[in-house]
């Protein structure tokens, strides 16, 4: 009997594929093994064809990676494999400052401008038509995060890096890696009075500056987002530079933390208010902004939002899906949209395509203390639901609306939904044992059904909620739009 050297090519194709898939699964399940996937791609041609799409699907890039990234994505076949790029704007260490010869005080803007321009210059050369010819690249999603270098004495307050858990989740599409990751309760008392002004400024700061010169147009990018895992903000002017460079953007998701200082937050909101309507891409279909509270300070409530709300409405009239949580107040959104002067401005074009809307409302937050009164609170909820019905008449294609709020032990969710059989339904879930569906509320929503040409309108009996709602993030799983308002891994962090 002759001896033969084992050869993978002699195996049945099904068994060969099974072996490759098992190797890929091992790499995705073990963060330390992930770099080995690139080595597998170099074994032979058949292994390259299997592993390279997995290797090139997600890229995590810092400054030192950009040159090599440009080299390995020279041909259109590899470019067509890239689905997601995470660009990390990392503040250089003291050693890097010295090695790069950076100025002591004026290094930041040119440093980060160079990083962003480097990546944009590379991917601006990727052309949709060329990639389509080889059957790839239906859309590239770009993620941006900003990272500050903290001194050792502030270690207690440094955000826990989720790089490992996130990278593992990108590989296998599962959130299991987040079971051991902190929920990042930066809005807990620890991050209130105990934080020094400097720590608040460092943790919840304005974010990096870049030159105002327009970025190269990048046609392959259809999605852009930031995640709540990182507390530094992206300045409005930087966001708008990015928005203007994405002529085919369809999906933008901004997860942010409120600034640590009131003056900085007011400045950020003013920047959004003034220019947001002028920079929302015409191609955009979905905008989601989720704002976390960060340090507590009653003076934050004094920041006026009425102009910002109006600006948001005027800038998002063409969208199909809109999700604004804690960024603006749902009460003001409905009031602004329903006022006669605003109605005239949006009539015939405003929210004609909107199918999904999620908002938060201060009226749904039951602040249970010695001065809290159930009847007064319920009256505010009833008024909110009537305002929502009036505003919904300007959204003829709306299929799902959710208005919610909670925390500190309570939760409330109002939902309007149109079923597949073209019937409307309103429902109410709350930790407060009350029914806000008075006759005037029911009649208001029946008018919506009539205006929208629905075959009927039903009212689901209210649901009394129970559970630990100390953190408002615990309410997210109750939302049908939970996959839209936040990145799936952000939901995993919060819940």
TrEMBL record:
| Any one Pfam family match given in the protein's UniProt record, by short name | DUF6546
Annotated DUF6546 domain residues: 280-487
Q: What InterPro entries does the annotation carry?
A: DUF6546 (IPR046676)
Name this polypeptide is given: DUF6546 domain-containing protein
């Amino acid at each position: 009997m002759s001896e033969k050297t084992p050869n993978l090519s002699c195996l049945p194709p099904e068994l060969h594929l099974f072996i490759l898939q098992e190797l890929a699964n091992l790499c995705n399940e073990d963060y330390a093994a992930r770099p080995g996937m690139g080595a597998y791609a170099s074994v032979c041609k058949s292994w390259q064809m299997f592993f390279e799409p997995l290797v090139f699907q997600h890229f995590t890039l810092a400054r030192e990676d950009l040159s090599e990234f440009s080299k390995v994505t020279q041909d259109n076949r590899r470019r067509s494999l890239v689905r997601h790029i995470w660009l990390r704007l990392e503040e250089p260490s003291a050693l890097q400052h010295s090695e790069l010869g950076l100025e002591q005080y004026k290094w930041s803007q040119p440093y980060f401008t160079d990083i962003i321009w480097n990546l944009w210059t590379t991917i601006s050369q990727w052309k949709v038509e060329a990639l389509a010819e080889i059957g790839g690249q239906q859309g590239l999603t770009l993620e941006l995060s900003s990272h500050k270098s903290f001194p050792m004495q502030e270690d207690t307050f440094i955000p826990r890096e989720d790089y490992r858990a996130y990278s593992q989740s990108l590989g296998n599409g599962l959130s299991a890696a987040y079971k051991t990751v902190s929920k990042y309760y930066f809005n807990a008392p620890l991050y209130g009075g105990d934080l020094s002004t400097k720590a608040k400024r460092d943790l919840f700061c304005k974010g990096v500056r870049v030159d105002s010169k327009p970025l190269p147009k990048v046609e392959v990018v259809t999605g852009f987002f930031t995640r709540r895992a990182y507390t530094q903000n992206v300045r409005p002017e930087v966001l708008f530079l990015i928005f203007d460079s994405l002529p085919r953007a369809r999906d933008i998701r901004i997860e942010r933390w409120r600034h640590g200082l009131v003056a900085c937050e007011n400045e950020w909101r003013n920047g959004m208010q003034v220019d947001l309507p002028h920079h929302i891409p015409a191609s955009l279909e979905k905008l989601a902004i989720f704002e976390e509270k960060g340090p507590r300070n009653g003076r934050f409530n004094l920041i006026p939002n009425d102009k910002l709300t109006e600006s948001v409405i005027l800038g998002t009239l063409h969208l199909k899906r809109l999700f604004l949580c804690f960024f603006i107040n749902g009460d003001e959104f409905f009031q602004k949209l329903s006022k006669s002067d605003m109605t005239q401005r949006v009539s015939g074009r405003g929210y004609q395509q909107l199918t999904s809307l999620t908002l938060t409302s201060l009226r749904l937050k039951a602040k249970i203390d010695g001065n809290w009164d159930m009847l007064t609170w319920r009256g505010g909820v009833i008024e909110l639901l009537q305002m929502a019905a009036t505003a919904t008449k300007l959204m003829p294609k709306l299929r799902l609306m959710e208005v919610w709020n909670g925390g500190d032990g309570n939760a409330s969710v109002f939902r309007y939904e149109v079923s597949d059989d073209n019937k409307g339904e309103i429902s109410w879930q709350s930790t407060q044992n009350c029914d806000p569906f008075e006759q005037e509320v029911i009649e208001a929503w029946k008018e919506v059904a009539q205006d929208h040409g629905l075959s009927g309108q039903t009212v689901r009996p209210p649901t009394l909620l129970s559970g630990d709602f100390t953190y408002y993030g615990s309410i997210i799983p109750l939302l049908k739009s939970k996959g839209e308002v936040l990145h799936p891994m952000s939901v995993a962090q919060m819940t």
